[in-house]
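cron nightly-structures :: item 1 of 1
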Amino acid sequence: MEEKMTKTEIARQKRESRMRAEMERVEKMRSFERDAVRAAGGSGPVCGIDEAGRGPLAGPVAAAAVILPEDLVLPWLNDSKKVTEKRREVLYRQITEKAVSWAVVMVPPERIDEINILQATYEAMRSAVSRLSVRPGVLVNDAVTIPDVDILQVPVIKGDARCISVAAASILAKVTRDAYMKEMDLKYPVYGFAGHKGYGTKTHCAAILEHGPCPIHRRSFLGRLLAGSAWDLHDLQEAADHPSSRDMGRIGEDQAVRFLEKKGVRILERNFRARQGEIDIVASQEGVIVFAEVKYRKNLRFGDPAEAVGPEKQKNICEAALYYLHRRGYSTQTPVRFDVLAVTGEGIRWIKDAFPFPADGQL
């Protein structure tokens, strides 16, 4: 009996130790968020924003906005990707019951096809903020700055794992979207939406090729998969055979974006325009802001596309990058990288650190 009590006591102490460590972790998230808001000069209700479902081949993109009570403690709250499905469901109930205000908006596939996934994500985020019953004083976003919002924004790289409000938003967005995809699984059972939630798994792609796309598939995401199949929605090769230079650039950039997203790179913006020039893709990877130039050619007959990014072009990109960091509120100490994606008919070559940022800041 004494041995059993000892084991029970040890187990209790371990549970208490885990809970203390968890409470410390959550408190660090809250402190980090509070410090980031203060550093940006923010005040008033803090609203966390995050999205779910940018990368899938099917289904909507969801965005959540949430304002939490300042003293709320939610053990195990974290980036939704780091939390089990069962715990996400529990956290969802806790957040929606205790939040000062919250909203989740989903933008459907047809709208994504119409305006592209990045703009659809921004649209969902703006709509979610507009539906809050309390106006936020500041928005804390996961490494993005939402256009056309007249509220102070604080973009935080990996915000869903570092800021408590963004983590809460990530839970709301994912649970809402996952529930929707489970409903769609009942309506379109051959695709297995309940399992992969619309992402491009092998079984999902095989089902698309066998049965064709259904109404909730994103047509703009299926070009490469369906090219040459019986379900080909549009012949991309024909577009490549007789394109305008603008069409070639758009095709190359679309392919590059899909390529990067499959590699786990988070796309922040496309075609950022500055006086110095345009940056094709702005992205985030492992805490680094990536400025990517895309060069497209049908084949290598006229040389490697990457060779077109010469010294003058590099200088313009660096200057535009500095302007981007300033406009989006990033610190001058933010780690950055300049990549080139060479897109040809044979595939995509990703050149990381294609050229350096001037060490002395002189451009």
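cron nightly-structures :: done
Residues 234-243, 299-303 have pLDDT under 50 and may be disordered.
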